[in-house]
Design a protein that fits this description.
The protein is an alpha+beta fold. It has a domain of 184 residues: Jelly Rolls (Sandwich). Strand 8 and strand 9 form a beta hairpin. It starts with a strand and ends in a 13-residue tail after the last helix.
């Protein structure tokens, strides 16, 4: 048993420990060595694994970064390519638009030059005829002026038409100045702008959506109205008259009871000298119709606009499905008369109306005889609407009466000195209603 010494207060006392305490006090060297070796083994294994994992992670990150960079570069290149394509496309469209504008400008310039050349040539041809006295004009010369004028009026614009007519009027070739006076008759000359629907865009397929299509040249519209080919569908309208050209006016009404209007305004102030002397006549004609049994009504009206805002309206013709006998056809309508005095402009209207079924019933049954009794059929009107219509009619009657019997102040000179106010009123009452008569001193 070994000897172990404890120091306490500087006194050393020997102590004897049992053998079991001696063994427990010694460290377990073999276990420590095994743990250290195991740690070293793990360290030897983990370090390469960590280095490998770090290398793999770094490689993956670099690969992902490279891939992201390539994708970003590709996206940027694609975007640049798209932007370049868009820029090139816009440039092509701009160039194409400029080309079309230039072509339109060239076409207008060429058309303007052609019309001016035609107009100048006609004026040169008329020089010798205009300088001749009227009595020396021959029938062939007058026929030449008429035929050439009719041909020229179809080739020039509305402005030159008025210039030509005014020139003929100033040359005293458009009216009979006195008995036996020779003049040129221009009856049948077309002074409208694209009245036959033969100028401008003409669509071939009417089954496609034409909403927003090009407005017929020379016209204004309220609704969807276009120019379409006769043979653009299965209408077979082109077989009805071989003298017709290629296009017609066509309107679509997507909603029921909707009207579509085409109108054209012609300024006739240049013809005031002919109109006010009642030497200007007009002839308005056209073919109106529709398709099969569609309840439609096509109307052509002419409005003569005057300086006093007292317009006159003429209905050239109305063609409904009843007039067409529910067939696809066009019916001819025309009117001929003298242009009213004071007219400054003429408005042509083409009204395409999808008639309600009740309208058809009214047209069919109204004034129909049943058991020797005539039946009158009309639309039902609410009280407010009926009163408004009565008020409007009374207003129109009052305006017509005022216009017809408006007061006129008349001054008369060199009367008998013995005449007084009562005698003056009595003498003139036999001619017209005299409101008051007074002699001035």
């Amino acid at each position: 048993m070994p000897n172990v010494w404890f120091m306490h207060r500087r006194a050393i006392r020997p102590a004897i420990l049992p053998f079991r305490f001696k063994q427990s006090a010694q460290p377990p060297r073999k276990k420590y060595v095994s743990v250290i070796k195991l740690i070293k083994l793990f360290a030897a294994i983990l370090v390469p694994l960590m280095i490998g994992a770090f290398t793999v992670v770094t490689t993956l990150q670099d690969s992902n970064s490279a891939r992201y960079q390539r994708e970003a570069d590709l996206t940027r290149m694609e975007r640049q390519g798209q932007l370049q394509e868009e820029v090139e496309k816009r440039q092509r469209l701009a160039d194409l638009e400029k080309l079309h504008e230039q072509q339109d400008y060239n076409d207008r310039a060429a058309k303007e030059a052609r019309m001016q050349n035609v107009y100048d040539a006609y004026m040169r041809d008329l020089t010798n005829i205009v300088l001749k006295p009227n009595a020396n004009l021959t029938v062939p010369e007058l026929l030449f002026v008429r035929s050439r004028a009719s041909s020229i009026l179809d080739q020039i614009d509305i402005k030159r038409k008025w210039y030509l007519i005014k020139f003929l009027y100033d040359s005293e070739l458009l009216y009979a100045k006195d008995s036996g006076y020779r003049f040129v008759d221009l009856g049948g000359s077309d002074l409208s702008n694209n009245g036959g629907a033969e100028e401008g865009q003409c669509y071939a397929n009417t089954h496609e959506n034409l909403t927003g299509g090009i407005i017929p040249l020379g016209w204004q519209r309220d609704g969807d109205a276009f120019q379409v080919l006769y043979n653009g569908s299965d209408w077979k309208i082109d077989k009805m008259n071989k003298e017709w050209e290629s296009c017609l006016f066509y309107a679509t009404a997507p909603r029921r009871h909707r009207k579509v209007v085409l109108l054209q305004v012609i300024d006739v102030t240049e013809l005031v000298m002919l109109i006010d002397t009642r030497r200007a006549r007009f002839q308005v004609s056209g073919y109106l119709g529709g398709f099969d049994d569609e309840r439609t009504q096509t109307t052509m009206t002419v409005i003569f606009r005057k300086r006093e805002n007292r317009n006159e309206t003429l209905i050239v013709g109305k063609v409904s499905n009843i007039d067409r006998r529910n067939k696809t056809t066009l019916l001819f309508r025309d009117q001929t008369n003298v242009i009213p005095t004071g007219t400054t402009s003429i408005i042509f209207q083409l009204i395409f109306d999808r008639v309600q079924s009740a309208d058809t019933i009214v047209q069919t049954i109204n004034r129909f005889s049943i058991s020797d009794k005539q039946v009158y059929v009309g639309h039902f009107e609410k009280k407010n609407k009926h009163l408004a219509e009565i008020k409007r009619k009374k207003y129109l009657q009052r305006q017509e009466y005022m216009n017809k019997y408006q007061v006129v102040n008349l001054c008369i000179k060199n009367l008998d000195d013995n005449l007084d106010d009562k005698q003056l009123k009595k003498e003139f009452s036999k001619f017209e209603t005299i409101i008051s008569a007074k002699l001035s001193p």
